[in-house]
Amino acid sequence: MNFQVKFKNDYGEDCLKTVRNLERTGKKLARHQNHLRFNLHCKHHDVTPVSLKLSSTVKGNKANSILKRAERQLLNVRISQTIQKIDYLNKEKGRLDSCVEQKLPGELVEEVRSRVNRSQIWEHGVTKERQINKFGRLLQKNQEQTSRSLPSECIHKWVKNCSDRLLRDPELSVLVKGLNFAATDRHVPVVEIVTQTELACRKIPDREAHLLRSKVSNLLNKPKKKQSNLSKEEQEALKSLRQDKNIVILPADKGRLTVVLNKEDYKQKCSELLRDNNTYLRLGKRDPTSSYKNELKAVLQRFQEEVGNTQHHIKNSQQFAEVIKQARVEEDEELRSYDVTALFTSVPVDKAVDVILQRLKEDQTLSERTTLKPEQLADLLRVCLNCTYFVYDGIFYKQIHGAAMGSPVSPIVCNLYLEHLEQRALRTAPHPPLWWYRYVDDTHTKLKKTYADEFTDHLNSLDPDIKFTFEKEENRSLAFLDTLTTVQEDGSLRVTIYRKPTHTDQYLNFQSEHPLEHKLSVVRTLFHRAETVITDPQDKQKEKLHITQALKTCGYPTWAIEKATAPKPPSPSDTTQNNASRGKNRGIVVLPYVKGVSEGLRRIFTSHGIKTCFRPANTLRNILVAPKDKTPKEQKCGVIYHIKCQGQNIRGPCTETYIGETERSLKTRFLEHKRPSSKTSEVSQHIHIESPGHSVSLDKVEILDTEPDFFARGIKEAIYIRALQPSLNRDGGRHRLPATYNPLLTESRVLST
C-alpha cells in the first residue's frame, strides 16, 4: 500500500498535510539556499542575472553607469531578501517538525524526518546542478561581451599583429587577455599534488603524514565540475594559434604588448643579429657542454688544498622618492639621466672579474662564509661568465663579448662593475654631480649646467667598452624608473608616476585561473606605489582614478578593488597567531592552482603547519610562446621515461614495458638498459636473456614527466609505476608510495595531467 495512503488511514488527513508541508518546506529551503549561492557568485564575479538586467532608451557612458549601479543595488536587495526567506523557512521547518513530533510516535517521527531529509538532499542536488549550469552560461556570455566591448585602442595597444595571418575576433579575444593569463585546465594535476604532498610528509611524524595523505586523497577523489574561463570559440582559437607553425608569438621587450610575427621574419631578424661577429661566434653543430664541464672540473680540482652597498645605490622608486622629496634644484642646476648602451653585452668580463677579485680580497668576513680563496672564487666566476654558448636553428653560437643575458650571475657582475666605474667617475671628475642615484644602469643626477657636458664626456672616457647616453630634463621634468621628477617654481621637486610610451596599462586579467590573492596583490601594489611615490595629494587622487579605470578594463570588479584597498584593522591577536604559526611551520609546498580544489588543499596543509603557495599552471605564455629550439628527446635530463618492447610473441606484439627515472640524459640511461652486460637492468634482462630477439628503440621511448629534483623525481616515478603497472619493474620505484593513493592513481587521471 502507498505510504501516504497508509499514513492517511492511520493518522488522519491533517497529520498527512503537516508532513507534506514539512517536505515542501525542506525543498523550498534547498532551492533558496542554492539561489542565494547563485546570487552571491554573481556579485563576486560582477555579473548581473538576466532577471535583473535593466535597459533604457537613454544612451551613453553615464547612463550605462547608472544602470550598472542600479542592477548591483537590486542584486544586493535580492540577496538580502533571500537570506530573510531562508531564515523564515528554517523557522517554519522547525515549527512543522515540532508538530509532527507531537502527533506521531517516536519511531515514525524518525522515519518521516529521514524521508524529508532525503527529499531535501535530492532537491538540493538537482537545483545546484541547474544553478551551476545557469551561472556558467551567464559568466561565459559576460566574458564574451567584455571581450567584444574592449575599446579598439586597447586591442591595438595590447596586441600587435606583424604577421600575414589575419587574426579573427576570437583569436584577438584570447591574445588581448595577456600572456600571463592562465586558462582553466580540464584535469586536476594529480601527479604534482601527490608529489608535493609526499615531500611535505617527509617533515612530519608518520601518523600525521598518514592523516594528511588521507585528507588530500579524499579531496581529490571528489568530482569537481570546472567551468572554463574561455568560451568555446576562444578555446578553438587558442588551439588554432598553437598549431600554426608559420607564426611566432612573443612578448614585447618593453611594456605588456603581445606581438605576432611571421616565423620567417623572426628567423631572418635573429640571423641578422647573429651575423654580428664582434658579439657572437658561430661554433657549428657540436654541443660544447662537455668542454665547459671539463674546464669547470679542472678548476674545482685545484681547490683541494657584496652588491648595492654604496650611498648612490637605489633599491626602488619608493626609496628614490623618499630620498629626493625634500631636495631642491636651483636655476643654475639641471637634472640628467644617464643610461649604459647594451649593458650586458658591453661589460668587459675580464675587467669585471678583476674588480670582483679585489672586492673579495678586501672583504674581511669572506672566511666566515666560505672556505674558498678569493682567487678560487674568481676562477669559478670566470668559467661561468665565459660559458655563453646557445643554440639557434640547430647551430651553436657563443657570445664572445659581455655577460650573457638570462644568466643569474650577470646582473650581479654588471652591477658590481658599474659600482666600481661609478666610484671612479665621481672620485676623478673635476666637477662631480651634486647628486648621483643609480639603479643598475639608470641614473638620476643633478649637475651645474655649466659642467653638465663636461661630466658626460668624463663618463665616456673611463672605459672604451661602456658608453653612456643621457636624457636632459624637458620642461623641467625628468623620468627615472617609473617616476617623473618635476622642478617647481620655488625649486622644490614634485614626484609623479611615469609611464613610458610603450606602457599598455595591461595587468593580470581578473578571469585568469590565478588565486584571488594574486589578483588582489596587483591592486595593492599599484595603489601602494601611488601612495608612497607621489608627493602631491591631487596627483595621488588622479593616479588612483587612472588605476581604477585600468583595472576595470582588465575585468576587475569594484568589490575586488575595494577589498584590496580597504585598510586592514590591527588585531591584538595577530602577533599571537603569527608566533603560533611560526612555531608550527613545517616547510612549504608549491602547488599548481586549480580553482575549487586548491583552496581545500590549502586548508588541509595549513592544519598541519605546512605553508602553501600556488602557481598558475596553464598560462598563454606556456601554450603559445615557443621561439627557442626544443631540446631533442634523447638529450633531456631529469626525466621519468617509459620503455616499450618492440618484439613479437606468438600471440602478437610484446606488451612488456618498463618505467624508470634518471638525472642524466635519456640517451645515456637508455644505452645502459640496452647493454647486454647490464645485470641490474630489467630491460636488458628481458631483451637479452628472457626474450632473445626482442628489442627496444630510443625513438619509441616516451618521456612521461620532467623533474630536476632528486626526491621529487623518485616520487613521480613511483606514481607512474603505480598507475601504469609496467610488467618489467620489479618494485614500485625507489620511493615507497603508500597505498592511500591507490583509488586516485588511475591511468586516465595520471596521464591526463
Q: How helical, in percent, are the residues?
A: 40-55%
* End-to-end distance: 53 Å
Work out the number of β strands: 20
Tertiary shape: globular
Content-based structural category:
alpha+beta
Output the number of helix runs: 28
Order of strands across the widest beta sheet?
Answer: 8-9-5-10
The residue-averaged pLDDT reads: 85
Strand fraction equals: 5-15%
**Poorly predicted regions:** 299-306, 573-583
Rg result: 33 Å
Describe the largest sheet. 4 strands, antiparallel
Question: Can you give a write-up of this model?
Answer:
The protein has 753 residues and is an alpha+beta fold. Among the domains are: 3-149; 317-497; 631-752, no CATH class. Helices cover 51% and strands 14% of the residues. The chain has 28 helices and 20 strands. Strands 8-9-5-10 form a four-stranded antiparallel beta sheet, covered by helices on one side. A three-stranded mixed beta sheet has the order 1-3-2. β17 (648-649) and β18 (652-653) form a beta hairpin. α2 runs parallel beside α4 (106-149), α14 packs antiparallel against α16 and α19 (516-533) packs antiparallel against α20 (537-553). It is globular and about 110 Å long. Residues 299-306 and 573-583 have low confidence and may be disordered.
